[in-house]
Amino acid sequence: MISLILGIAAFVLFFIYDVNSISFKNLFIHRLFMIGSVMVIVSCGLDLFSAFKSGAFSGVLDIVLIILGILSAAALIYSLFFALPFGDTYINPEEKPKVYSGGVYALCRHPGLLCFFAMYAFFGAAALPERMLEHGAILSVLNFLYTAFQDVVTLPKSFSGYPEYRKTTPFLLPTAASIKNAEKSFSKSASKEDGQ
């Protein structure tokens, strides 16, 4: 139960962080995103530990699901912390950086939401009969509400060019056009790295 409470509390912190980013711009409150992120990691870790301790993981299918969960977690971390310009996104709240629309953010506006859902779906399915799947469903709904709030309220005020980005890039599910844009973006990145 503590893991679910931690996860829910993390999303409360995320909402406060986002409201702060467009109104108060308080430096201490700005740290709540990182604190919330740690709380989500601890929440997920507690659920995994509980399932491991109860002997929920058994068989090849569970191993495959755990590997897929780890890959989804890695994709989530990449989407949130490495695919974006870290300093402009998380460290300099006073500035209004240009929206980043390359890489995975050319696929859809919120790739982290897909990765979060996939992570909990895979880990939760492997952890059955433990309650991780149920916890993941609750946290995924909160994540969806948080992301929708960001998309409509805070991100257009935090990043220049966000309204235009919304017109060209799908909210969540990639389209044929957005997949092509992502491929072009990754090709440009690869070309730049080869040229250096």
Query: How many strands, what sense, and barrel or not for the largest sheet?
Result: none
N- and C-termini, Cα separation: 51 Å
Q: Which structural class fits the helix and strand makeup?
A: mainly alpha
- As for the number of domains, it is 1
Number of strands: 0
Question: N-to-C SSE series?
Answer: HHHHHHHHHH
Oligomeric form: single chain
Counted by DSSP, the helix tally is 10
Poorly predicted regions: none
**Structural Rg:** 18 Å
Beta-strand percent range: under 5%
- Helical percentage: over 70%
Rounded mean pLDDT score:
93
Which term fits the overall shape?
Answer: globular
What can you tell me about this protein's structure?
- The protein is mainly α and 196 residues long.
- The chain has one domain (2-195).
- The chain is built from ten helices and no strands.
- It has helices spanning 2-22, 27-30, 32-53, 60-82, 86-91, 104-107, 111-127, 132-158, 162-168, 176-195.
- Helix 4 runs antiparallel to helix 7 (111-127).
- The radius of gyration is 18 Å and the shape is globular.
List the helices and strands and how they pair.
Elements (H helix, E strand, L loop, with lengths): L1 H21 L4 H4 L1 H22 L6 H23 L3 H6 L12 H4 L3 H17 L4 H27 L3 H7 L7 H20 L1
Helix pairs in contact: 1-3, 1-8, 4-7, 7-8
Short structural description:
The protein has 196 residues and is mostly helical. The protein has helices at residues 2-22, 27-30, 32-53, 60-82, 86-91, 104-107, 111-127, 132-158, 162-168, 176-195. It has one domain (2-195).
